[in-house]
Amino acid sequence: MTATCPATEKSRLEVLLETISASRLNCFHSCRLKFYFRYVLEVAKPTSAAQILGRAVHGALQRWSNARWRGQALDGETLKTSFVLDWASAQAAEPVEWESPLEEHEQQEKAWGLVEMYLRETPIAPNEKPEAVEARVEADLPGLPRLVGVIDLVRPGGRIVDFKTTATTPQHEQAIHRNETQLTAYGLLHREATGREASGFELHHLVKTKTPKLVVSERGPVTDDQEIRFLRLVESYTNGIQREDFVPSSGLQCAACEFFAECGVWNGGAQ
User: Fold this and answer.
1) Per-residue CA distances from 241 to 18, 127, 221 (Å)
2) Where are the domains of the chain?
3) Which class for 154: exposed (0-12), middle (13-18), buried (19 or more C-beta within 10 A)?
4) 45 exposed, middle or buried (CB, 10 Å; 0-12, 13-18, 19+)?
5) How far apart (Å, rounded) are the C-alpha atoms in residues 114 and 116?
6) What is the pLDDT of residues 173-193, one digit of tens each?
7) Pairing of strands 213-219, 200-207
8) What is the CA radius of gyration of the chain?
9) pLDDT in tens, 219-261
């Protein structure tokens, strides 16, 4: 059974058919009902500790990358000062409901520990100048929604890097497979922006274990088969949105879903 959307939701569906991002594409194909709650109904959810930690780490690495792009020195003390200010701004904009001030302090220290670890262990040389940092790019997909995305970092030679914080140590093959849609999207965006194929991809996993560690997963350029698979996924997305087909994908992952309560009372889209 498919959901039948009222007029107010129709306009959101039209917007969702204008552009597509890797994150929306992944959400749609992991569970269409989750996509419906998040992007069509726009059900608001509180910011989690993991989200603010990930954003803080990402922001610090962006500052570090921008400094290298400008050819400027950025010492750890200056970076930490910016990190603390960015954390406070993020908390003010989207407050996390901490159990206590101590919990927030511990999470902030954990986040900074990840940044310190990365600066020690990164395979990127301090004097390596990036080709691009936080590059916002768009690409035409003939007959399909326009592809949009933000690429964390492009190393010399067109090698794309994506930063990720994770609670568990990733396995190489699983990490590459799980992120294929995102990496292929970035490859197509890079081609559109530069006229060149990305030479390869690196997933830099900052792992939140007791002793933080860095795990790097590498993949080569986008293959023809990967591009075809990506376009088929976009076609499926487009067809599903047009049919208003938002059925759930039930499984073990449901217990941790942020829309678990909403899913439990969903009536199949009947109005």
Assistant:
1) 11, 46, 30
2) 132-231
3) buried
4) exposed
5) 6
6) 999 999 999 999 999 999 999
7) antiparallel
8) 20
9) 999 999 999 999 999 999 999 999 999 999 999 999 999 999 9
Strand-pair partners of 155: 159
Residue 14 burial (CB count, 10 A): 10
**Given a cut of 70, is residue 2 above it in pLDDT?**
no
Say which DSSP state 156 is in. Answer: T
Q: Does residue 37 contact residue 143 with C-beta atoms inside 8 Å?
A: no
Copy the structure tokens of residue 83: 């990190």
Buried b (16+ CB within 10 A) or exposed e, 174-207: ebbeebbbbbbbbbbbbbebeeeebbbbbbbbbb
Structure tokens at 40: 């069509």
As given in the structure block, the two tokens for residue 193 are 């922006």
Q: What is the CATH number of domain 132-231?
A: 3.90.320.10
